From TrEMBL, chain A:
The keyword Transmembrane applies. Residues 292-329 form the LicD/FKTN/FKRP nucleotidyltransferase domain. It comes from the Eukaryota. InterPro entries: FKTN/MNN4/W02B3.4-1, FKTN_N, LicD/FKTN/FKRP_NTP_transf. Signal peptide: none annotated. This is Ribitol-5-phosphate transferase. The gene is Fktn.
Automatic annotation (TrEMBL), chain B:
Interacts with DAG1 (via O-linked mannose moiety). Interacts (via transmembrane domain) with FKTN; the interaction is direct and is required for normal location in Golgi membranes. Its cofactor is Mn(2+). Keywords: Disulfide bond, Glycosyltransferase, Golgi apparatus, Lectin, Manganese, Membrane, Metal-binding, Phosphoprotein, Signal-anchor, Transferase, Transmembrane, Transmembrane helix. GO terms for molecular function: beta-1,3-galactosyl-O-glycosyl-glycoprotein beta-1,3-N-acetylglucosaminyltransferase activity; carbohydrate binding; manganese ion binding. Pathway: Protein modification; protein glycosylation. It catalyses: 3-O-(alpha-D-mannosyl)-L-threonyl-[protein] + UDP-N-acetyl-alpha-D-glucosamine = 3-O-(N-acetyl-beta-D-glucosaminyl-(1->2)-alpha-D-mannosyl)-L-threonyl-[protein] + UDP + H(+). It is found in: Golgi apparatus membrane. Residues 123-212 form the ILEI/PANDER domain. Its main location: Golgi. Belongs to the glycosyltransferase 13 family. Its EC number is 2.4.1.-. One of its GO terms (biological process) is protein O-linked glycosylation via N-acetyl-galactosamine. This is Protein O-linked-mannose beta-1,2-N-acetylglucosaminyltransferase.
């Protein structure tokens, strides 16, 4: 009796566990498929390793978008990378049917599109249609940075990112805004407390870790994988731009606090100087950008941006930094052509190069060239009358975009380290008397130029 | 998955004794049964392992995902959004209403929603409207029914309130002196027993539902003319209805959703919240052909006058060629109701923390609004600046579209304004005519970005300077001799009666009779003649054509100008130097046009209409056009009357402020 019982119990248990196991296997399989994506029937993409889900979702999304007349363009770096390889062919036959699904069928979790904010009315109907089509969507809103610099304005929050999810694929729609300085800006993707953190694996998104700054792209309507879609006309330069698009917002709140402590100089002289410095900076940026020379705000101009989001009125000049590897011999003639005569040239390309141009009414444009070493970066200084050399050391840094006096310019991303290296920990306190040979925190004596080189390394006009 | 197939994965040599036992049992008769049993046990074991693996796997994946999304992507602000109002399921509201000579207050469920004990203020009947479903305050008004006509405003307001709303009344100081029969009847119809007998300095409180029950009423009679009635305190309960009963059943569209949100929050906007036949909130005026101002941002500068803003936005959104996407409303202060109005129309609004006081506050608000406008629309070369107390003409954008290129090309222009300071019913005639004037009229104008960014913004008056922004903009240091283009017939109408520099008398005298264009699609005449040099040619042509009036007559008399139509007349007044406006001011006074300071002049010349004739006034000898004066004519001189020196002092003060 007992043994039969035991057998029956065991058999029953085995059966249950078998059912259980099967159920779990199914579940596990479903779970895996959800991660990789294969819920759609393989109607398209006959080759193995292709994923038609993505193609279908993208097609649905494009249909949704065009039914609401919203112009979006493709900025997905992986697809643009593929497209770039065949760009000539795609350009030459914009309407040709494609024999195979080449771009939109690689299994990915996302496809990224961009939307220019000003080209659409914030039409709620879009989301209702999206829901009807089966999309789940998520909107990420945040403060409008264009109002951030303003004293105490509180506008409505603006949408920065949208995510449309259907089955196992998601469309990431990045909203671009026009900013002063004639560039496009997209915001960072930050989740608020109540948001669904698992809506998509946010970390894998290509856009949103940092805000970004871009030039306004020229667009091209192409047909790839039988889908009509707008792409940047020059995908490779877009991808290049994307790789260093990180944008830093000015620290407006800290700047306001600074002005609370040290009220702004509103004298006519200060107003005039700011105006001149601004137009000088605009001219310099135009000249260097035309040459394709990368530059950043340095010294006092950088401090002004970082500390008070404005030109420091008593600084009396505009300072830019350029990596020596970006040096071009055309720089001097280009500035002269732009109406800025060379005032002095210290050092040489191999060592401590520094150029100074004469702007309008005593406002000077100083360009310092930076030399990269293994563990630091430095630029040089020269005293004209004694031939003494100085060296200013900075920790290594990368470049970020920012907006300054209605201009898109570079600043060191690690700004505080840069400013602190230059001005010491007390950089928050304005100093009116400044000696470039002794005041900087990071200045070092660097010997004397040999007399026979003076003619070359000390040129004053 | 294959590796988890339930095969006994036992390696025999590892556990020898167990293997032997198994071998022995296999030979046994019960071997088969034992085998089954062992198999089952092993199978169970495998299941458990698979189970655990699955749990671990999903756990880890989920954890990773959480980790991933948590890092970097968290908003720095960690404050959890707390629901603002705890959900109140209570069906009864406790209402307290107090009325006395120097203080009134209303408390709903212990929260004070009205308290006024300021001296010399808030006299009359205070009215509060509550939502019958939520108990939220939807409108707060005070009608100074001690003064004339205020009772009419109250009747108008009460008629606009939707049926079913809860109305609370209380009197501060005095509320009966000009409370006429009509108003008393309206109050009676609301259920008040006392209202028809309200008299001098009585205290009164009343709570009732519009078109329904009365929740309470208290009254204290004034015993004598010189004394007030005793303070009264009414405590009562109000039963709330369900939300569905309090709402209209409009078709479910996006527009109606906005309407519903609006109408459940505020009261006093009339038919926009009417259940049966609501007035539209989307207007879709005809687009303009070749609209040059479609992409020009429009900044609406607003304070806390939501009813004005409502009227203003209606007229703005009805103007042909309007682009709602370019409109931003800037509200000076954290006021909810103006923002509700903005949202009703689906526009974007920005609130501004007030800085400084009075005029400087307005001035700072203007600066912030203009800067924000150019930040939000970095591509824009211009901005249209409007105020909340303006009606906008149907051809406002058409007028700008036809003239904006002048502002772009002619450096000698300061602005384009929709407002003609001297364009009254009796002095403006031609909707297609434009002028150049040396003054900046404001009240609906276009600002060039470069002017703002390069000149005005950097030296805008700081908050401690209590300057009017418009006075400041009119100063020679800012204007630098540049001029504005204005139409003969204004494209905006200033309807505001309450305001910082505004009161009923002032409005009646200077704004009410202003002419306002209502004709759509007016084709402007000869726009090119408004350019700097062309305009001089035009003026010379006009003066050449003009008939000199009889200077022996009194220019204030109607007979000064002959009874003709469509002619051009000129008169000469005495104007010793550029800033001598003695005679002009007197002339302006008797013509009933703007005389508080000098407006509308161009090189000592004023252009207006009298009896449908173009009427030119030239100041001699200061004006360069003086040479047109025939030698026989003596310029008219009008002395300021000695008595009214106070009045004349006004422009003098204004001028002093400017320097």
């Amino acid at each position: 009796m007992q043994k039969i019982n035991r057998n029956v119990v065991l058999a029953l248990l085995s059966l249950t566990s078998l059912v259980f196991l099967l159920f779990q296997l199914c579940y596990y399989k479903f779970y895996l498929s959800q991660k990789n994506g294969a819920a759609f029937s393989k109607a398209r993409g006959s080759q193995s390793g292709q994923d038609s889900t993505r193609w279908h979702v993208v097609r649905k999304f494009l249909g949704l978008i065009s039914s609401h007349n919203i112009p979006v363009y493709l900025i997905d770096p992986l697809i643009l990378g593929l497209v770039d390889k065949d760009i000539e062919q795609i350009r030459s036959s914009p309407d040709g049917p494609s024999p195979e699904c080449k771009y939109f069928c690689a299994p990915r979790e996302f496809t990224t599109f961009a939307l220019l904010d000003k080209t659409w009315k914030h039409d709620v109907g879009l989301f209702r249609t999206a829901e009807k089509m089966g999309f789940q969507w998520l909107k990420i809103i945040n403060k409008d940075p264009r109002l951030d610099g303003m004293d105490d304005l509180s506008g409505m929050e603006i949408p920065l990112h949208y995510i449309f999810k259907l089955a196992s694929h998601a469309i990431h729609l990045v909203v671009f805004y026009e900013r002063s300085g004639n560039f496009l800006w997209h915001g960072p993707l930050r989740l608020k407390q109540h948001m669904d953190r698992k809506f998509v694996p946010f970390r894998k998104l290509h856009f949103g870790r940092y805000p970004g700054a871009y030039e306004k792209p020229e667009l091209l309507l192409v047909s790839i994988d039988d889908l009509k879609v707008q792409i940047p006309k020059n995908p490779s330069s877009f991808l290049e731009e994307m790789s260093h698009s990180r944008f830093l917002e000015c620290r407006y709140r800290e700047a306001r606090a600074f002005f609370q402590l040290y009220p702004d100089d509103a004298s006519l002289d200060a107003v005039e100087f700011r105006k001149k410095a601004k137009s000088l900076l605009h001219l310099a940026a135009l000249t260097l950008n035309n040459l394709g020379v990368k530059f950043w705000l340095s010294s006092g101009t950088c401090l002004g941006w970082y500390r008070q989001c404005n030109v420091i009125p008593h600084s009396k000049d505009v300072d830019l930094g350029i990596f020596i590897r970006d040096y071009k011999a055309d720089i001097i003639p280009a500035f002269q052509k732009a109406g800025l005569p060379l005032k002095h040239k210290f050092g040489k390309v191999e060592d401590s190069l520094e150029l100074s141009f004469q702007g309008e009414d005593d406002v000077k444009l100083d360009i310092f060239f930076f030399y990269e070493e293994d563990d630091h970066i430095w630029n040089g200084g020269t005293q004209a009358k004694s031939g003494k050399k100085f060296k200013y050391l900075f920790p290594k840094f990368t470049l970020c975009w920012t907006e300054f006096v209605e201009l898109k310019v570079h600043v060191p991303c690690e700004t505080v380290q840069y400013v602190e290296a230059n001005y010491g920990p007390e950089w928050k306190v304005p100093v009116k008397t400044w000696d470039w040979k002794s005041s900087p925190f990071n200045v070092q004596d660097n010997g004397v130029w040999p007399i026979d080189e003076w003619d070359n390394v000390i040129q004053i006009y | 998955m294959e590796e988890w197939k339930p095969n006994p994965p036992v390696k025999p040599h590892k556990k020898r004794s167990w293997y032997l036992a198994w071998k022995y049992k296999l030979m046994n008769q019960r071997a088969l049964r034992k085998l089954c049993q062992t198999g089952a046990v092993l199978f169970l074991l495998v299941t458990v392992i698979v189970n655990i693996k699955l749990i671990l796997d999903t756990r880890r994946a989920a954890y990773e995902e959480e980790e991933e999304s948590a890092q970097d992507y968290d908003d720095e602000m960690l404050n959890v959004e707390v629901p603002r109002h705890p959900v109140n399921n209570k069906k009864v509201l406790d209402v307290e209403v107090y009325s006395s000579r120097s203080k009134v207050y209303v408390a709903v469920d212990g929260t004070t929603v009205l308290e006024d004990e300021a001296r010399e203020q808030g006299r009359g009947i205070h009215v509060i409207v509550l939502n019958q479903a939520t108990g939220h305050v939807m409108a707060k008004r005070v009608f100074d029914t001690y003064s004339p006509h205020e009772d009419e405003a109250m009747v108008l307001f009460l008629n606009m309130v939707a049926r079913g709303r809860i109305l609370i009344f209380t009197i501060k100081d005095e509320g009966s002196f000009h409370l006429k029969e009509t108003a008393k009847n309206v109050l009676k119809s609301l259920g008040s027993q006392v209202a028809p007998f309200l008299s001098w300095r009585d205290m009164w409180t009343f709570v009732g539902k519009k078109g329904g029950e009365v929740y309470g009423e208290k009254h204290a009679k004034s015993p004598a003319l010189s004394t007030w009635g005793d303070p009264v305190l009414l405590k009562t309960e109000v039963h709330l209805t369900s939300v569905e009963d309090a709402e209209c059943h409009w078709p479910d569209t996006e527009l109606n959703r906005r309407r519903k949100r609006f109408c459940s929050k505020v009261e006093g906007y009339g038919s926009v919240c009417s259940c049966k036949d609501p007035t539209p909130i989307e207007f879709n005026p005809d687009p303009l052909k070749d609209n040059k101002v479609f992409d020009v941002p429009v900044a609406v500068i607003a304070g806390n006058r939501p009813n004005y803003l409502y009227r203003m936005l209606r007229s703005l959104l009805s103007a042909q060629g309007v682009n709602p996407q370019m409109i931003t409303v800037f509200i000076d202060g954290y006021y909810e109701e103006p923002m509700d109005v903005v949202e009703l129309f689906g526009l974007s609004g920005i609130q501004h923390t007030p800085i400084s006081i009075k005029n400087a506050r307005v001035s700072q608000h203007y600066k912030a609004s203009l800067t924000a406008t150019f930040n939000l629309f970095p591509d824009a070369k211009f901005a249209v600046v409007l105020e909340e107390d303006l009606d906008i003409s149907v051809d406002f954008f058409s007028f700008l579209s036809q003239s904006i290129h002048l502002l772009e090309e002619d450096e000698s222009l300061y602005c384009i304004s929709a407002w003609n300071d001297q364009g009254y019913e009796h002095t403006a005639e031609d909707p297609s005519l434009l002028y150049r004037v040396e003054t900046m009229p404001g009240l609906g104008w276009v600002l060039r970005k470069s002017l703002y960014k390069d000149e005005l913004e950097p030296k805008w008056p700081t908050p401690e300077k209590l300057w009017d922004w418009d006075m400041w903009m009119r100063m020679p240091e800012q204007r630098k001799g540049r001029e504005c283009i204005i139409p003969d017939i204004s494209r905006s109408y200033h309807f505001g009666i309450v305001g910082l520099n505004m009161n009923g008398y002032f409005h009646e005298a200077y704004f009410k009779k202003h002419k306002f264009n209502t004709v759509p699609n007016v084709q402007l005449k000869n726009v090119e003649s408004l350019r700097k040099d062309n305009y001089e040619t035009e003026i010379h042509r006009l003066l050449g054509e003009a008939e000199v009036l009889d200077h022996s007559k009194n220019p204030c008399e109607d007979s000064f100008v002959p009874d003709t139509e469509g002619r051009v007349y000129v008169m000469f007044i005495r104007m010793e130097q550029e800033a001598d406006f003695t005679t002009w001011t007197q002339l302006a006074k008797c013509l009933h046009i703007w005389d508080l300071d000098v407006r509308g002049n161009h090189k000592g010349l004023w252009r207006l209409f009298r009896k449908k004739n173009h009427f030119l006034v030239v100041g001699v000898p200061s004006s360069p056009y003086s040479f047109k004066k025939p030698s026989s004519v003596t310029p008219i001189y009008m002395e300021p009357p000695a008595k009214e020196e106070g009045a004349v002092a006004v422009p003098a003060v204004a001028a002093a402020e400017q320097t």
